């Protein structure tokens, strides 16, 4: 296929990129957009043609791209003014790009992607646009002789309806049950839900069910944050012969608003092994993979919150580490929260490739437990974990080192 227009002369001034001394194409079809495969003094590269605007028999570039929201909100109509139209069939190619977020940011826009082709000077796009995303469109007119390129970008567009929270995670299942030192471990898995916005993180909840008249009651609900690119979580220290209620929730961020999705749930019976696997594997507690040299290096104030750095010895063959930390008892004089049980059993988690990590979102006068676990280069997570505990000081004692810290009564 030969594209319209004339290659610049071999001695013409061209961009440094187009002037590189390489042969990167053999024919026009190997070049993107309206560029042609052209020879210059030092090679063959894709270059913008000359005289394309006066080439005969090619449709003109469309203009005045207008985007209108239809009544059903999730569909839009595009209209444009055709350029010069030579005889014959003209095909209009529409491309879109977008980004998610409450505010438009040009540098966050994705790549241009074809979305529709039509022979009419308008197009109706159904189920393409999602709430909470900014869109731009552009149109090219093409016929058998080629194209002059794409139009100017349309004005930015976002639907009048705001984004909804994510749907519930799909296909929630549990893996094989493992017995470790008299407790049960299993892996909870799920698939991402449908969502107007990209998933920001997941929350996993698990609680032991009580037997008896109030069988739906739970003694304690545990929760853990899971990164957005993870769709599995290792549940540990479950009691044998017990019922557990497991839930997974997806969360999305829209500006300052956090959209909490529906929760998927299932009941796990740790005495009925067939609901996860026909194999019940017993693993001795004395396993390789324990972290060596784990200790609290320092407590410090940063970005308006109390933090703690932990360190440990690096070991060859470890790809990353998973860190979990949770609070136990807290003094009632805590400067952030006067509810003694407000943060009880609140668990946070993170991963790192380095042999140290800064724990965040800590409270004063609270006792914390931190666990570190190895993940090998093959992605195998160690069944052994290493833990330490520490107690944070009172705010007034810590304030002596950081003048910007304000303690409440």
UniProtKB/TrEMBL annotation:
Question: Residue ranges of the Fibronectin type-III domain?
Answer: 61-162, 168-277
Q: One Pfam family, short name please?
A: WAP
Supply one GO molecular-function term.
Answer: peptidase inhibitor activity
Q: Which Gene3D superfamilies match?
A: Elafin-like (4.10.75.10), Immunoglobulins (2.60.40.10)
Give every WAP domain span.
1-50
GO terms in the biological process aspect are: neuron differentiation
* Cellular component GO terms, alphabetical: cell surface; extracellular region
The UniProt entry, under PANTHER family, shows: ANOSMIN, ANOSMIN-1
- The protein here is known as Anosmin-1
| Originating species | Ignelater luminosus
